[in-house]
Protein: Proline--tRNA ligase
Amino acid sequence: MSNFRHALNTRRDADFSAWYQEVISAADMAEESGVRGCMVIKPWGYGIWERFQRLMDDRIKAAGVQNCYFPIFIPLANFEREASHVDGFAKEMAVVTHHRLISDGKGGLIPDPEAKLEEPLVVRPTSETIIGDAMARWVQSWRDLPLLTNQWANVVRWEMRTRMFLRTSEFLWQEGHTAHENRDQAMEETLRALEMYRASAEEDLALPVITGEKPENERFPGAVGTWSIEAMMQDGKALQAGTSHYLGTNFAKAAGIKYQDRDGAEQFAHTTSWGVSTRLIGGIIMTHGDDDGLRVPPKVAPYQVVILPMLRDQPEDEALLAYCEEMRAGLAAQVALGEPVRVLLDKRPGKAAGKRWDWVRKGAPLIVEVGPRDMEGGKVALLRRDRLWNMDNGKPNFDFTPRDAFVEKAAALLEEIQRGLFDEARKRRDENIVRGVTSMEQVSEFYSSGAKYPGWIEVQWAKPTGAALDAVVEQLKTHKLTIRNVPMDAQPADGNCIFTGEPAVERILIARAY
Amino acid sequence: MSNFRHALNTRRDADFSAWYQEVISAADMAEESGVRGCMVIKPWGYGIWERFQRLMDDRIKAAGVQNCYFPIFIPLANFEREASHVDGFAKEMAVVTHHRLISDGKGGLIPDPEAKLEEPLVVRPTSETIIGDAMARWVQSWRDLPLLTNQWANVVRWEMRTRMFLRTSEFLWQEGHTAHENRDQAMEETLRALEMYRASAEEDLALPVITGEKPENERFPGAVGTWSIEAMMQDGKALQAGTSHYLGTNFAKAAGIKYQDRDGAEQFAHTTSWGVSTRLIGGIIMTHGDDDGLRVPPKVAPYQVVILPMLRDQPEDEALLAYCEEMRAGLAAQVALGEPVRVLLDKRPGKAAGKRWDWVRKGAPLIVEVGPRDMEGGKVALLRRDRLWNMDNGKPNFDFTPRDAFVEKAAALLEEIQRGLFDEARKRRDENIVRGVTSMEQVSEFYSSGAKYPGWIEVQWAKPTGAALDAVVEQLKTHKLTIRNVPMDAQPADGNCIFTGEPAVERILIARAY
Structure:
C-alpha cells in the first residue's frame, strides 16, 4: 500500500484515532465549535445525516409511529420520581437556573440574580420522563393503546471526554417512545425497533451489526431490559450503534400512565423507548473510511455521482459543460437503490485533479472526470471510490467508458458499491470474532498478545447477577473490555461459564468499545 | 350561520382568542406541556410542520444554501461582542450555569455547587453570534463567498406571556445565515430569502402576505435593515410570518469574518440572516380555521383525503374495506400539487359520523364516507372541508359521486381547494386594508369605532427617525397599534406625513399585531 500517494497523512494502521479525526476534517464533515463538547456539523456530514434521517423516518412511519415534539426543558421533579433513571443521568446534565442576563458593570454579562428560576430546568438528556407526563394525559383506556410516538431532537449529556460524532455534549437523535397494554406487546415493540435498527444499519448504512440483549450492568437507567445493535470498527472496537429498551411499568408508575383495561380494571401501561443518533456517522467513518478518506455508502451519500469537467476558462468550456449537463440530466433520471440518482455537476473553478481529491476524501461513490478528449471520443473517465487504485501501477484506477453506457449502468454500479461496502465490512467483522474461547486466561492472552487492533471474543457464561456480575465486569475492565451483548443468533450454550465455571446459559460478546 | 350545528363550541366572531385555543385542542394539534412556556406538538400539528419543512427545505436547497448544525449553547462572550444584539435578547434567555445535579438530602435534587460552569452558557435564542464564529473560520478569501448556510433547530426565548405556536419559550424554526463580499450581494440575498418566504407562504400555506421593510424601531437587534412578510388574521390582526435581515458588517466585525478581496485587501464580510418558525402554524389556524375547526391547505395537509368506511363489525365489512382500499390505492397513484396524493383509509373502530367530525375539526381537505349502499351504487359520499355546509338545509354538503370519477378528479379538487383558500384569504385581507387615511385622527377614529376586528390602515409618512420615530411609536401604542412594514408594492407617496405634516416619502401599514 505504501506505493500509493494516499490522500490522507495518517494511515489507519498507524494511529486509528488520529486517522479518524483527519477523515472528519479532510472530508469537511464537522469541526470543533469552541463551545465545550459541542461540534459544528458541516454540509457533507449533515447531508449524510439528512439522508439517513429521511430513510429512518420512513421506516418509523411505516411502523405506524407518529412524530411529535416535546419540550427541551425537563423540571427537576420529573427526575426525582424515577430514582434509578436520575442516578444514571444526574452526573451529566446541563442545568438552566436563570432566565436573564445583566451587565456585570465591567463590560461583561452575568446571570441576573433577580431572574433565578424557582425550580431549575434540565436540558433533556433523553425524554422518557417528559414524554411520560404527556402519555399520562393521553392514555385513559386500552383503546388508546398502543401509543406510538417518536421525536427527532437534540439532547445534551455533559460528557467529560468528547470525540466528534461519537461522544459530544450535544447530539442529534430520534427517540421513539411507546406505551402498551402489557409486557408482551411492549416487548414486541422493543424488538421491532431493534430489528428496524438492524435493517437500517445494514441496508442503509452498510454497517453489519449484531443484535442482542445488553447485560444487566449495561441497561439504560430505569429499564427492565436493553437491547443493542453492535458494529465492529476497523480498529476492532465495538460501537453501540442503537438501543431499544423495555421499560416495564417503571416509567409508567413514575409518571402515572394508567389505563382501564378490557375488563374495566386500572393498569399501568408498559412502555418502551429506542434511539439512534449522529453517533452512527462516526460508525460510517470507522467502518468504511480508508487511507484516502471517507467512502460514503451510496444510500446515504448526499451526492452519489460527482461530475468534474476539466474547465480551462476558454470558450471551449461551453461545449464541455453541455456534454456534462446532458450526462447529469441522464443520471438524475435514473433510479438507484429506490430513489432518483443524486448527481452533482461540480462547476467550481479549479483544476479537475484538485477537485477529484476533494471528492475522494469526501467519499462520493462515483467520480466522473471529463476533458475535451474524452468528449471527442464520447467517453468519460470514471473513478469508483471503492476501487480507487490500480494495484498494478499504483495510479488512480480510471475506467475510460462511453458516456451513455455509463449513464445506463450507473444505478447498477451504485447498487454494487452499496452491497460491496457491506460485504467487505461483514467479512472483516466475521474474521475478527474469535469463538471457542473457554477461559478468562485465553481472553487475557488474546488481548495482551500485542495485536494492535484485536477484535471481539465470544464466550459462554452463566449470566451472573448482582455482586457476581460486578466481579466479572471488574475482571474485564482490567483489559478495558466490556460485555457488548448476548447475540440473538448465537448458538445455544453447551459449555461452562468462563468466569464461574458453572454450566453456561448463553453466549456473550466481549470487546473494547467506544 | 347559527342554524348549523358547528363542530366547535366557540365562534370566531364571539371570542377569537378562545376560538384559537379550541381549534388547537379540537384538531389535536398541540397542548401545554406543564413546562413553563413550552408546548407539546402533537402528530397533526407536527405533521403540518413536517410538510412545510420539506417544502421550505427544497426551496432553501434550490437556492444553493447548505444545511449545517451549530451548537445549542452560546458562550456569554459571544453576546458581549455585539452590544445592540444583546440588548435585544438579553432579557429573555435561558442560562445554563451548572452541569450536574446532586441530592439535596431531602429527597430532592439541586444543582451541584461543585459543578458550576466557569462561564455560563446561553441556550440559543438565535444563532448569529455562534455561526459568526464558524464563518470567521471558514472565510478567508473572496473565493469562499458567498457562504450560504441554514439550520433547522429549536431556539429558546424566555417569553413572559405565551400562546401556543405564536409565542412559546421554545420553538422550532429554520435560520439561514449567509456571508457576502459586499452590500449589494448581501442585500440581494436578503431579498431573495424574503421572496422565498412570500412564495412559500402564498403557494404552500395559502397565506397571502405583504412584503416590506420594517421601520427602524422594529429591526432585528444588530441588523441594518429588517424585512418581513405580514399576514392578516381573521381578527384583523397582523402576524409577522417571516423575517429577513441585512446585517451589514455588524456581526462580521463582532466575530471577525474577514476576507481578502479580489484586490488583495482585507474586508469584512456583509452578512444576512432569515428565519421562519412554528409560528406559521398559528398563522394557518387563524387564516383558514372556521367555526368547525381547522382547514389545512392541501399542500401541507398530512392527509389530503381521508376515507371513512361505515364498518359494522360484520362479515360484510370485508367487501366494503376492499372497495375502499381500491380507492385508496387509486388515489395514492394520483399526483396533486406536485406530489402523490396523501390518503388515509381510517379503519379505526367507531361510527363513521363520529370519525367524520374528528376529521372536520382537523381540517382534512377531502373526507369520503362509504357505506354499503354507496358501494352497491359504485359511489362514495364526498365532503369538501372548504364547502362543508349545504346552505339551503344546514346539513353537511355531501356529494354522492361515482367512486372512480372521484379518484380521477381528486387531484383537481385538491388544487381547487388550495387555490380557493388562498383566494378567500386574500379577498378578506384586501377588503380589510383601508387606504386614503390622511390624519392620525382618522386612525384613532377607525380603531375606536367599536369594530370588533378592525383591519389594517395604509398611511403615508415622512419616515421619521430617532426621537421623532419614538414619538410616533408612542402615539400608535395608545391604540395598541404598530407599524408593520413599508409594503414593497405600495404606490409612491403623494401626500403628507400623517404624524408630522411634512411631505411623505413612503407608505406604511399600521395594525394591531400578534
Observations:
- The first strand of chain B starts at residue 30 and ends at 32.
- The CA atoms of residues 374 and 380 of chain B lie 5 Å apart.
